[in-house]
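To: structure desk
From: M.T.
Subject: fold request, one chain
Message: Could you run this one when you get a chance? Sequence is below, nothing fancy, just the single chain.
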Amino acid sequence: MRIPREVVEAIKDRCDIVDLIGSYVTLRRAGSNYNGPCPFHSERTPSFTVFPDSQSFFCFGCEAGGDAFTFIMRSENLDYPNAIEFLAKRTGVDIPRTAEEEKRGLSRKRVYEMNLIAARFFRECLFDPVLGREGMAYLQEKRGLSVPVIRRFGLGFAPNDFTALVTVLKKEGYSEQEMKEAFLCGISQKSGRAYDYFRNRIMFPVIDTTGNVVAFSGRDVGGDSKAKYLNSSDTPGFQKRKHLYALNFAKNHCTDELILCEGNMDVVALHAAGFENAVASLGTALTDDHARIMAKYTKQVILAYDSDEAGQRAAHRAMGIFAKVGLDVRILQMRDAKDPDEFIKKFGADRFRQLLKQSRTGFDFKLQTVLSRHDIAIPDEKIKAANELCEIIARVYSSAEREVYITAVADKLGLSTESLKGDVDRNRSKQAKAGRQQDSRHAQLSAMNLGDKINPEAAGSVQAAAAEETIIGLLLLYAEHRKAVSSRLVSLASENFVTSFHRRAFEAIMVLEQSDGGFEFSLLGEYFTPEEMGRLAKLEQKRRVLTENGTPVLRGAVETLIAAKEKKEVKEASTMDGLQMLLAGKRKNIKKNTEED
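Reply: Done. C-alpha cells follow.
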C-alpha cells in the first residue's frame, strides 16, 4: 500500500535509531557514533555501526545497512508497508487506510483483529460445559493443568463443527477470503464453501511480545486426525521462523537462561511448575531467526528436547545455530521420561530443577555422542574418536576453552594432552588455510564483481559499474547533485546506465527528488528490498568518508560512464557483425554443398 510521505516522515522524526537498534543489540559509543555486534550475521569483532547524525546504520562485515525502516524490515522480516506499520505503532503515529487499500489486501492489523475474536471464541467453547467437555477433560485430567494456568495461556477448544468459527467471523464483518488468508478457514474444492480449519482441537494462541494474537497451534484430542498438531501457516501477520511460543511470558524471566522445548504442552507444563523461562518453536525446526531473537533476551539456552533419537539429532543441529549468534548452549538429558512434561509429572519440579543444574555443555554432549559411536578399547576406533574430537575442538575460538576440552578428551581416551594439542593445532592450521583460500577467492570475485547477487550485470562492465556507484553515492548524499541532474546542469539520463540495478536506483532517486517534498532516503524502501537498501547504504557510506565529492567528481563519473557504455556498445556491435558474417559463410557453404550433390 502507498503510505503518505508525511506519515513516513512523522515516524522517522519520532524514532531515534540509536534507541531502536539499542533495543535489539548492545551498542557502545565510539566517538560520535555507536558500535555493536551485528544482529544479521555472526561475528567476534563488532563491525556494526549506527550513525545518529544521519539516522542510519551500516555493517562493514555483511554490508547490511539503511535506516530505521530497513532495520525493522530485516530484523522482523517484514515488507516495507508492514515495517512502517510496526514503527508507527512503536511511535504512536496513526496510518490512514483508504477504501481501495482495505479492498486490495489483508493487513496485519486485520489478521490480529480476527485472531483475537477467534481466541475469545475458542476460550468460550472450552469453558462451555457441553462444547468444551472433551477439551477440558484432556487438559485437566490427562495433562493435570489447573484453571488458572489454562486461563493464563488463553487456551481454548475448537468444537468439532465445520462452520462454528466461520459463522462468528462473518457476523463480525470478515469475508471468507480474509479468513482463508489468516489461516482460520479453508474453502472446499467440491462445494466452494468455507469451513473451519481447526476442529476438535485444544487451541494454543500464539501471542507476540507486544500482546497480539498472531497465530494458533491446535492439538488433536479425538485421535481422528493424522496430524497431532496443526499450526497456522505464514500469514500477513505471522511467520513461523520469527516466533517462539510463550516468549511473551518468558521474556520477563530469561535474563540468565531460556529453556527451549519441542512442544507447546512442555512449555505450559514448565510454566505451571514455576519455570517461566520456557519457550518452543512452532511446528518448525529451529532457525537462525529464532536464535537471533533469543540472543536479544538471554545469555544461555538450555535445550530440553525429547530424549529420543530425533530429539538428540535436533539438539546437535541447534548447537551449530546458536553458536552463530554467540549463545552459550547446554543440553538437558532426561532419563526415564521422554520430555519435560512427563519428567515433571513423574518426579516433580524440584528434581527438574536439579536436572537443569546438571545440564551438560555443548562440548560434553558432543564428546559423549562421539564416544557412543566408537569402542575406544579398539585402537583403530580410539584413533577415529580422537580425530573427530580434535576437529571439533579446533573450531573453538578461545584458547583457554580448547585447553580445557583437550584435557577432558585426554582423560577419556587415555592419551597425552601434548599429542592431542598437536593434532588440534594441525586441524586449526588446515581450517585457517581453507578460510584464507575462501577469502582470497571471494576477494578476487568481488574485485571483478563476480557473484554479485544485488547487481550481477556489474561483472560485464567493471568500469561502467564503478562509475555508476560513484554517481549513485553522490546523488544519495548531496541535494546539490540531485538538483544539478534534475535541472540538466549535469546531463545524465537513465539510458546512460549499463546495469539495471543502478538504473533503477537513479530513476527512483530522481522520481523522489522531483516529487512534492523532495528526496528522502526512507522512501526508497518502497522500491527496493532490504538487501538492495543495504547496497545503497554502502554506496552512500563509501562517498561519505571521501573528501572529494564535488561537482567535478560527479561530472567525471558521468563522462566515464558514457564513454564506457559507448565502448561496450561498439564491442557488442562488432561481435554481432562478426557473428552475422560467420552465419552468412555457413549458409553459403551449405548452399554450395547442396548444389554439388
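Reply (cont.): Confidence is low (pLDDT under 50) at residues 445-449. Let me know if you need anything else for the meeting.
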